[in-house]
From TrEMBL:
Residues 18-99, 125-198, 227-310, 324-400, 428-505 form the Kringle domain. It comes from Darwinula stevensoni. It holds the Pfam family Kringle. InterPro entries: Kringle, Kringle-like, Kringle_CS, Kringle_sf, Serine_protease_kringle. This is Kringle domain-containing protein.
Length: 508
């Protein structure tokens, strides 16, 4: 049996007196009563909750479900509390200690104690963050929240430290449920802040021990991370043995923790395709603890799956699928060597891909600039880059070797093939050979690269007869050019592209 000492480190303690930022996992009151789930709405909205907020908005990150039955302080009470089953009592306070104080010595005459606020976030959205960062990712200073240009659309009750705010308060916060902590800057514009994740404390040390000593699990049939959002294995039953339903059936509507709720259901999956995931366990919700799936019981609707942690949790520097939405490696430069822009900033390249958090295989913080594919990037992981002619470019993420160790030159439906080195039709859209020089002898530019020739539209990659990878520079005809297979000039821009000399196959 594992003996665990009492933990009082953040987030299992309060940083402020009222503890509105508390997101720990205590779920009993100070008298030992079990807390009720917040989303069960056992009683009326607390009378001390702000009239400016609804039933969900007064919770950190603007939701109820993720807080389960943990002690919280979504209202104006003195400290964290919860509802209890005894209707004559309704609610009770919880025994949540203050975080340890640190001694500060200004000089030999002045010493004082203060709770040291961590400069990190626990959740993806970071609504609990009460640190002192007051600059955006791009370095712009934050405006005070009390400014008329800011607070005209936000209520102080939406802030985790709203009771302690003064006119100078200009620290990064997330009062309205955006993807991460943010602030306003000059020009009536807002931007995310560089608030990293707090160091991970394994929630299940026994499972961690099993992953190190038990039967070896190999990715993709195991989790590389606690939440397992990158999991693309083939387990299709829950931890209690229930059969998973297909994701494309969407049996109960869009789950509340699919982010962003304004997006279409199918956009919020890895590779933006629910059908691809069949009825396998997955974790597209940003607040579920590990992979799960829908089940046929309408009362419970979903259950977690028993997906083990990988023995080797080092991310693989390759992709398993053609689109590579599951890739969680550390590549942060494009094929042409351009540095990647951080996903949570729209400077210098303006975008809003953070609204597809559910389609990312991992969580985002201010420093995250790794190649990912949250969209329909048919060529695989990519990133924004100011230096790229198009403002973005695919990254050098190859396919993972097959189970027998082979690397594919030509790959279709996850299988290596030996293609015909001729075209079966005059137009040659089906050609899958390996010729990579034009009719005049120019070497072909890789299809995923934007240099030396800028590719105006990569969506035609979906019309290739084979799967795309970074070194793929073979003659193809994805747009139905009457002259047959062609490619871009890999040596320069004159000519920009040219046809290839592909012979017709001879009929036997």
């Amino acid at each position: 049996m594992l003996r665990e000492d009492k933990v009082t480190a953040y987030p299992e303690c309060r940083l402020t007196k009222k503890g509105r930022e508390y997101v720990g996992k205590v779920n009993k009151t100070e008298t030992g009563k079990e807390c009720l789930r917040w989303d069960s709405h056992p009683y009326e909205k607390p009378v001390d909750a702000s009239d400016e907020t609804g039933n969900m908005e007064y919770f950190v990150n603007g939701d109820i479900w993720s807080h389960k039955n943990y002690c919280r302080n979504p209202s104006a009470k003195e400290r964290p509390w919860c509802f209890v089953a005894d209707s004559s009592v309704v609610w009770e306070y919880c025994d949540i200690p203050m975080c340890p104080e640190r001694t500060y010595e200004c000089d030999t005459r002045l010493r004082f104690l203060r709770v040291e606020t961590p400069e990190c976030k626990v959740t993806q959205q970071g609504g609990e963050y009460v640190g002192k960062n007051n600059a955006t990712i791009s370095g712009s200073p934050c405006l005070s929240w009390s400014s008329e240009r800011v607070m005209d659309f936000l209520a102080s009750s939406l802030f985790s430290d709203g009771d302690e705010m003064d006119e100078q308060h200009n620290f990064c916060r997330n009062p309205d449920g955006k993807a991460a902590p943010w602030c306003m800057k000059l020009g009536r514009k807002w931007e995310f802040c560089d608030v990293p994740f707090c160091p991970i404390q394994n929630s299940d040390p026994c499972q961690e021990l099993e992953s190190q000593t038990g039967e070896k699990s190999v990715y993709p049939e195991c989790r590389l991370t606690e939440k397992g959002r990158e999991y693309v294995g083939k387990k299709a039953n829950t931890e209690t043995g229930k059969t998973c339903l297909r994701w494309d059936e969407n049996p109960y509507g869009k789950p509340w923790d699919f982010f962003d709720q304004t997006k279409l259901y199918e956009e919020l999956f890895i590779n933006q395709n629910p059908s691809f995931h069949k009825n396998y366990c997955r974790n597209p919700g940003i607040y579920r603890e590990r992979p799960w799936c829908f089940v046929s019981d309408p009362v419970i609707q979903w259950e977690y799956c028993d997906i083990p942690l990988c023995k080797d949790r080092t991310p693989r520097e390759c992709k398993l699928t053609a689109m590579g939405g599951e890739y969680v490696g550390k590549q942060n430069t494009t094929i042409s060597g351009f540095p990647c822009q951080r996903w949570l900033t729209s400077v210098p390249r303006s975008h809003s891909q953070w609204n597809l958090l559910s389609a990312f295989p991992d969580e985002l913080d201010g420093s995250h600039n790794f190649c990912r594919n949250p969209t329909e990037g048919f060529g695989g992981p990519w990133c924004y880059s100011y230096d790229s002619p198009n403002g973005w470019e695919y990254c050098n993420v190859p396919f993972c070797p097959l189970s027998d160790g082979r690397n594919c030159t030509i790959r279709i439906a996850n299988r290596c093939i030996t293609p015909l080195e001729c075209k079966e039709t005059t137009i040659g859209m089906e050609y899958k050979g390996t010729k990579n020089v034009t009719v005049s002898g120019l070497p072909c530019q890789p299809w995923l690269s934007h240099t030396p020739n800028k590719l105006s539209d990569n969506k035609f990659l979906q019309y290739f007869p084979d799967e795309m990878h970074p070194s793929h520079n073979f003659c193809r005809n994805p747009d139905g050019y009457a002259g047959g297979p062609w490619c871009y000039n890999g040596l320069g821009r004159n000519p920009r592209w040219e046809a290839c000399d592909i012979k017709l196959c001879q009929n036997d």
